[in-house]
């Protein structure tokens, strides 16, 4: 394998970490007291060094026993936690499926672990870590415990904008505010944004690292 071809593989792009784009809708802002009510995850693929969307997972989740439900939160995200039409499952059921799928994705790409990608990633990461602790699934957690990629930060650096809708607009990604704040929709937009940002970096010549002289000479 020559020096360029190895960088066409997902396993070499992010230090052996497979990116998984995540968005959640919750019953409030406190990761210890509030519940994840909806979660969507998107795996990615790399073809000839270019990153794109692969597969999507999506679940509605029942609040855990004793979870605090903020009226403002569910009014904002328009989730009716009492509706049977949601098809909600327990945290443990959802995360068992999620972890199984992600580990298969990680192994298929010869990576070591997954790394969470999200817009304002610390929010999503904190809820996922607290959920993992609550359902005692630490031993099967595929995600890196503290590293993550934040598209708000990346957009701020590369586009001068940190709002998801505005970042998408700059790059010509359609964004429907009427569909926003749905985990499924926001994850899709975030995944497209992340792929475009990564691919821009490649297109302008700063990846792979054999072009590091370009960076040093700036």
Task: Explain how this protein is built.
With 218 residues, the chain is α/β, with parallel strands linked by helices. The chain has a single domain, classed as Nucleotidyltransferase, domain 5. 39% of the residues lie in helices and 22% in strands. It is built from eight helices and five strands; from the N terminus they run αβββααβαβαααα. It has helices at residues 10-13, 71-77, 91-108, 121-134, 151-159, 164-170, 183-203, 212-216, and strands spanning 17-26, 36-47, 50-60, 113-118, 143-150. It starts with 9 loop residues before the first helix and ends with a helix. The model has no long low-confidence stretch (mean pLDDT 93).
Please sum up the structure shown.
With 218 residues, the protein is of the alpha/beta class. The chain has helices spanning 10-13, 71-77, 91-108, 121-134, 151-159, 164-170, 183-203, 212-216; strands at residues 17-26, 36-47, 50-60, 113-118, 143-150. Helix 4 (121-134) links the parallel strand 4 and strand 5 (143-150).
Strand content: 15-25%
**Which class of secondary structure composition applies to the elements?**
alpha/beta
Main beta-sheet annotation: 5 strands, mixed
Q: How many domain regions?
A: 1
According to CATH, the homologous superfamily is Ribonuclease H-like superfamily/Ribonuclease H
User: What is the helical fraction, as a range of percent?
Assistant: 25-40%
Question: How big is the Rg?
Answer: 18 Å
User: Would you tell me which CATH topology applies?
Assistant: Nucleotidyltransferase, domain 5
- Average pLDDT confidence is 93
Q: Write out the strand line-up for the largest beta sheet, numbering strands in chain order.
A: 3-2-1-4-5
Distance between the termini: 30 Å
Unreliable residue stretches: none
Oligomer classification: single chain
CATH class: Alpha Beta
Global morphology: globular
